[in-house]
Amino acid sequence: MIKDLRFHGSLGRVDFSVHICGPEAKNPFLYEESPESVRFFSKGNELIITAGQVRYRGTGGSFCEYMFGVEKSLKDLVKKEVLNRLIMFGAFLDSSERLVFTNNTEGSEPFERLFLQGNAVKNYYFFISSDYGKETRRRQKEILGEVGKFLKRTDLLSQERDSELIDGFLKALKEPAATVFIFKLLHRNNQAYYNAFKELYFRDKNLRRDDELYLSELAARLGIELYQQERMKIDIMYRHPENRPIADQHRDILISALEMGELEYSQLARLRRLKTLSIRNRIPGLLFEKLDGLLLRGGSVQEPEEKEYLRESRSILETLFFKDPALKSNIIRDDIIKLIRAKHRAYTEGDMGFEQLLLDVGKLCDETARESGDYSPLEELSSIITYFDRYDHVQSNLSQLAFRQDMNLKDDFLRSLIGNKKEFDSLEDGLFNEIFVKDLLGNKYITNYGKRKIKTLADGVGRVVTGDASLRDVIAGLRMISDEERLYGIVHSLVKQKLRGLYPEADSKEGREEIRREIERELIERGIAVKVPGKLFEKCFYDIRKESFYLNHLLPVIIKTTDTRLREDFILNSGLDRFYIETMEKNYFEEKKLDKFLLELLRESAEPQPG
Predict the structure, then answer these.
(1) Model confidence pLDDT, tens digit, residues 106-127
(2) Domain-located, residue 377
(3) 201: closest CA among 157, 151, 240, 246?
């Protein structure tokens, strides 16, 4: 006996599949087709798919997987188990966020709006055909009670397991006499862009210049608007398995702040440290900014009024794109510099306001182009965003160079950097060093080797521009520092292991020389045929002595007295990297089973308080 029917088809840019299961599935008169549309119907329910929209009425609703760009209700956002959005026909939220059902379940959704406000790639509709003679709104409330929890929490949508999704739906419904129609609408062009970006980004979490050009050309060819591109990019970056845990931790801190009604200084300090960790793991800051926007704007956390630099940026963008075009030619150069400085300030302060402002302006430009046919605001915004893309590219590369050991240094990296330096300095002499080099060198988490690499790079770029050095000269200098950094890490670890044993001879220069030769022999056994420079070995030895002094003598005093000035003085004068010291402290607290709240207190007391 026939238990279910499946249909597949296409209209315009949308592919659709329909799954019908239940007693009526054997009835061939469940749909009708015309050149312009296809209509599915049963017992007062219908859903019509055309090339541009979907129309519906009856008992059912729509659902889709949440993605960045789908505005979650605050109730859904704070619940980790809620993965999907569910909308019941004829239902709405009142001013008190209560769900109200009505008998008017007829409506329509243009595909353009559906894939912009819902999931960018795939969205689902359903209706339930039955002989229940209840008032429509009561029936809708009943259906929500039966299948709502399943539809909002199932992960089968993200896993593309449609057959199991349908089985789970029927199991939750518990109505064998009812016939269920489930419709899946898939946007082909958005899916092509989504998959292309995902493949390139998941490769190594870094887009090359030719990747960006390819994606830009693909988006233009497929007709995908800038705002939609950004939604898909953010969603994919969030889903990377290395990004998601840190982004979720960021979210949990903000949710905790929402529950208290304010964002405390301690929480701000944790958010700053997460941002540092995100740099080390090459996690785009945009993920945190988007979460800030969704949570802080959606809740009651006390935030300061919009900062002056954001108000100025908003004024500039409004002048550039929405006022008299005659003004633009007179202000664009100076104001681009102001916008770049505003973006840089937002980056250094971890302020999501600037990126949110750009997203808002981009969305408005898209709407203006769509409604009036005037593409000039969008074109001008794109020319401005080119500088922000350059900023992101340089900031990402320099941060990786400063904070990571395994960056692959090539001529293209330096050539691109020089090109970007020329572009920024053509706006204002010295702008490149001001917004990139100076702030990185002042970052308290940058390592000593990171500082050396940034200084060597800045000096080398200047010498290449003046013709006093070649690209290969600078790359060679950077690789030498990176090689030394890696060797330091290996030798430091080996020396530390040996000093755990009985090495009384380590107090003499001859004894340390013998340890150095032992380490060189161990390195050869590992396939690392390299001499350990005396200065590097001595640095490792004395750094370990400093670590031992801190852990065994100074840290217990700091914990007992909560003297954060003593801690900060050691960090600033020991020559040890702050991030490494914080790792030692964490391990110490875990080993001694001490209250980690005290560790957080010590660190946060040293954080500068917001002005």
Answers:
(1) 999 999 999 988 999 999 999 9
(2) yes
(3) 240
Same domain, 179 and 220: no
Can you name the residues that pair with 433 across neighbouring β-strands?
none
For 578, the domain range is: 545-611
The 3-state secondary structure of 346-413 reads: HHHHCCCHHHHHHHHHHHHHHHHHHHHCCCHHHHHHHHHHHHHHHHHHHHHHHHHHHHCCCCCCCHHH
Q: Are residues 68 and 33 in the same domain?
A: yes
Same-domain check for residues 227 and 167:
no
Q: How many CB atoms lie within 10 A of CB 241?
A: 7
Q: What percent of the chain has pLDDT over 70?
A: 85
pLDDT digits (tens, 9 = 90+) for 291-323: 666 565 544 444 445 678 887 887 777 655 544
| The pair of three-digit structure tokens given for residue 543, joined into one six-digit string | 């750094």
Angle, vertex CA 185, rays to CA 134 and CA 163, nearest 5: 75
Q: Do 87 and 29 share a structural domain?
A: yes
Dist CA 78 CA 296 (whole Å): 12
Q: Is 39 helix (H, G, I), strand (E, B) or coil?
A: strand
User: Quick one: average pLDDT of 208-224?
Assistant: 90
Query: β-strand 122-129 against 179-187: which pairing, if any?
Result: antiparallel
Number of domains present in the structure of the chain = 3
Mean pLDDT of 52-67: 94
Helix axes 285-296, 265-280, angle to 10 degrees: 150
Does residue 269 carry a pLDDT above 60? Answer: no
Phi-psi region of 134 (alpha: psi -120 to 50; beta: other; left: phi over 0): beta
**For residue 199, is it within any domain?**
yes
Q: Does residue 486 belong to any structural domain of this protein? A: no
Q: Are residues 244 and 140 in the same domain?
A: no
Confidence of residue 180 (pLDDT cuts 50, 70, 90): very high
Could you tell me which of 69, 382, 419 has the C-alpha nearest to residue 219? 382
Same domain, 150 and 196: no
Which one of 141, 168, 187 terminates a domain?
187
> pLDDT tens digits for 343-402?
999 888 877 778 888 887 787 778 777 777 777 778 888 888 889 899 988 988 888 888
- In DSSP notation, 245-263 reads HHHHHHHHHHHHHHHHTB-
How much is the pLDDT for 329?
A: 45
Quick one: tokens of 63? 């659902």
Distance CA 440, CA 433 (A): 10
Q: Are residues 169 and 262 in the same domain?
A: no
Let me know if residue 479 belongs to a domain.
Answer: no
165 and 17 share one domain: yes
- The residue out of 324, 355, 390 marking a domain boundary is 390
> Alpha helices, DSSP H only, in 64-125?
74-77, 111-117
